[in-house]
Write a structure and sequence with these properties.
By secondary structure, this protein is an alpha/beta fold. It has two domains: 232 residues, Phosphoenolpyruvate-binding domains (TIM Barrel), CATH 3.20.20; 49 residues, no CATH class. It is built from 13 helices and eight strands. The structure holds 3-methyl-2-oxobutanoic acid. 3-methyl-2-oxobutanoic acid binds next to strand 6.
Length: 305
Amino acid sequence: MSLTNFRSAGSGAPAPKVTFPFLQEKKRAHALITALTAYDYATARLIDESGVDMILVGDSLAMVVMGQDNTLAVTVDEMLHHTRAVRRAVKRAIVVADMPFGSYHVSIAESVANAVRFIKEGGAEAVKIEGGASRCELVERLVDAEIPVVCHMGLTPQAVHRMGGYKVQGKTAAAAEEMIRDARMLEAAGASVMVLEGVPREVAEKITAQLHIPTIGIGAGPDCDGQILVFHDLVNLSFSQPAKFVRQYADGAALFRGAIESYVRDVETRAFPSEQESYHLAKNVAAALDLDASVDDPEAILREA
Ligand code: KIV
């Protein structure tokens, strides 16, 4: 398959449904994989229609949608609610649901049962879990249950308290070696994709070279097989100082603030709604009510409605 077969955004060519074998094929062809988070119908639709390969219903929704300080409190039911909204919007991209903190930490049986909910009730095509080699048994059990698994290593936000903050991981030779070893073990356990967050570029490059499955970086440099960002970071809707690795492609906050301020001004000055934005009674009905009406044709009411 040539590189052009993989291009979707603006190519005019019919875009094939993204599958894990397709992502694997992209890695082999050195065609970069695009991924973004989404949490609702409207943004998921825009992202899908723009040709993004993978949409993650990330537990970052706890912070960017629900306004919490970290990702720890979001529940399976809340994640499912948003996964269903995203599912309804997406036709092409692969939809991955993040398993929230606590939903895969108690027992393997409970973890598999929670993952099954994301596939059956949420319509996700895979689940994402954070952690290193200690997740190998869970990955095997999920794959046994026919659930593709996206693993997430490095700066894993659910481990914020253990890490003592959101800090780049794998900076010493020992930590880097452990991360590379763990990545290989997770691949051997059956992981389909490896997300690498907050990892030195050199370590991400080495993991990418050693794994057969695609790596998707976020703050892991340009040598991964693909990139992911939090949608709200991409469009400046996060209300926080962006991390060094974030590139803002639009100022959504300024755009929406401007629109809202204009609306408020127009309502307060009676500039909105206008005559053209109003419905009317037919003249005969208005006359019966002793009112003025500007429409002669009663059919116009039906056409306006
Ligand atoms: O929850 C999330 O948004 C994520 C991405 C940052 C990878 O896990």
